[in-house]
Design brief:
The chain contains 5 helices and 3 strands. By secondary structure, it is α+β, with helices and mostly antiparallel strands. It has a 3-stranded antiparallel beta sheet. The radius of gyration is 21 Å and the shape is elongated. The relative contact order is 0.13.
Amino acid sequence: MAAVNLDRTLAALADPTRRAAIELLRRRPRRAGELATALAVSAPRMSQHLRVLRGGGLIEETAEGEDARVRLYRLRPEPFAELRGWVGEVEAFWSAELAAFKAHAERTRSRSRV
């Protein structure tokens, strides 16, 4: 994952309201008004959060039906797959480090018993 993409993704997810919006959008696409109501935030504030999520590439918007003014927001899977890959790499690193530490501790322990 490119560092710039990872930075944008993590910055977009840094706010609890935006994470709550992501949780709601995991269930189904929603309109901005639905999100604002569910999260008890004003429409202008929800619009700011959605702008950050769009800028981070986490969501996309489409027109709903014939009225182009009504926008429907949905998750984009790509940034989450990239984030999952990065977290997997970090987890693999720490798993290897912990396994090495455990092996060292066991060797040290067995030498002290002799």
